[in-house]
Amino acid sequence: MAVITRYLEHATKGNGHAIDLTPDLARMLRETGLRHGACTVFVPGATGGLTTVEYEPGLLLDLQELWERLAPARATYHHDATWHDGNGHSHVRASLVGPSLTVPFVDGAFTLGTWQQVVFLDFDIRPRTRRLVLQFIGE
Amino acid sequence: MAVITRYLEHATKGNGHAIDLTPDLARMLRETGLRHGACTVFVPGATGGLTTVEYEPGLLLDLQELWERLAPARATYHHDATWHDGNGHSHVRASLVGPSLTVPFVDGAFTLGTWQQVVFLDFDIRPRTRRLVLQFIGE
Amino acid sequence: MAVITRYLEHATKGNGHAIDLTPDLARMLRETGLRHGACTVFVPGATGGLTTVEYEPGLLLDLQELWERLAPARATYHHDATWHDGNGHSHVRASLVGPSLTVPFVDGAFTLGTWQQVVFLDFDIRPRTRRLVLQFIGE
């Protein structure tokens, strides 16, 4: 049994930009040499989230409309009254989705469905490079 | 420390059908012989979710009404414009709930509350048999 | 590799009260002596949730308004018709947020962002003392 931690950087556009992490995850799992276990993907930061989705353009739009329906960008947020950084909606969306996702792997491959991809959602309002934590525990 | 992966199949009705996995989890944990650790339950597929709930008929209806309020089945989804499979709402509900749940166990029993059950939610729109991944890491 | 399980008690006010668990987590991680691994925080009970947030008063209000928008306290819930305990909204909010959060640690410190705190959300409707499970797996 081993714990192996890796980091992954992605330039994102923010505003709900969804980045498909599946190819990175597969490559990094291969590099660990582990065969059985789980990988926890974690966003260090309170304006990003992790989930899975069938990564196709229609659904990415549907997710954007979901976030807008649940926590509209133009609503008034107390966070903005305090900090005036205009990303109150980013924070509440991120807290709702959650910053952590654990995916099992078996025989060196993730147990994802064929049309299921792991996505990082950057809810913040400006482009930047975000660093994610990938932690593999297994054998 | 060991990693033990098991699979579980359930026939579901879809459309938000909530299946109580708690008895299966308890039985499978017993079969592993592990005493301390955590089990990650994972849905391979982008139209299912995992969470916990007090499994009683009233709350199962309340959850259905929640999904319908957050992502109505009759709204228009871009996913359906692309694929015409009519399950855009299934996908966004599943991404919102998330496909993964990790539950600790201690002395051979899960640390669930008395009125707290682990449920698989099948948001897709047709009955079928779904396979879930149960991965135990512990000693 | 070791599995170490600890418990944490907090008196909460209920009604969405958000408690910052970050200092407890840091202290308990230190006490385990583990350097690399992950901690799963789990709520035994179907009316609590776990996520991360920038823990400042404005955002705590924004989260309260989010829960109220998604699952209003004054709406009618089937759970209440059954049990008359008036906490139907607490249950559906908790199922939506989820009872489990896994956070990696590296070199004896959690991989949280600077303005990102782990919070326990007690959605139930009365003050009480809640017990949480913290399970560390690592080396």
Question: Which keywords apply here?
Answer:
homotrimer, 139 residues, alpha+beta, Jelly Rolls, 5-stranded antiparallel sheet, 3-stranded antiparallel sheet, 4 helices, 8 strands, 38% strand, elongated, UPF0047_YjbQ-like (chains A, B, C), Secondary thiamine-phosphate synthase enzyme (chains A, B, C), YjbQ-like_sf (chains A, B, C)
Describe the structure in your own words.
Chain A has helices spanning 22-32, 57-70, 78-83, 88-97; strands spanning 2-12, 17-20, 37-42, 48-53, 100-106, 109-110, 117-122, 128-138. Chain A has 139 residues and is an alpha+beta fold. Chain A has one domain (2-138): Jelly Rolls (Sandwich). In chain A, the strands form two sheets. The first copy, chain A, has a five-stranded antiparallel beta sheet with strand order 1-8-3-5-6, covered by helices on one side. In chain A, strands 2-7-4 form a three-stranded antiparallel beta sheet. In chain A, a hairpin with a 2-residue loop joins strand 5 (100-106) and strand 6 (109-110). The A-C interface holds A 1-3, 5, 40, 42-46, 70-71, 77-83, 88, 91-92, 94-96, 98-100, 102, 133, 135, 137 and C 1, 36-38, 51-54, 56-59, 61-63, 66, 69-70, 96-98, 101-104, 106, 111-113, 115-117, 137-139.
CATH evolutionary superfamily of chain A = YjbQ-like
* Distinct helical segment count of chain A: 4
Mean pLDDT of chain A: 97
Q: Most extensive chain contact?
A: A-B, 35 and 32 residues
Oligomeric description of these chains: homotrimer
Strand count, sense and barrel status of the largest sheet of chain A are: 5 strands, antiparallel
Question: CA-to-CA gap between the ends of chain A?
Answer: 4 Å
Percent in helix of chain A: 25-40%
How many structural domains does the protein architecture of chain A include? Answer: 1
CATH class (first level) name of chain A: Mainly Beta
Which structural class fits the helix and strand makeup of chain A?
alpha+beta
How much beta of chain A, percentage-wise? 35-45%
Count of strand segments of chain A = 8
Rg of chain A: 16 Å
Q: Write the element-wise H/E pattern of chain A from the N-terminal end onward.
A: EEHEEHHHEEEE
Q: Using the alpha-carbon principal axes, give the shape of chain A.
A: elongated
What is the strand arrangement across the widest sheet of chain A? 1-8-3-5-6
CATH architectural type of chain A: Sandwich
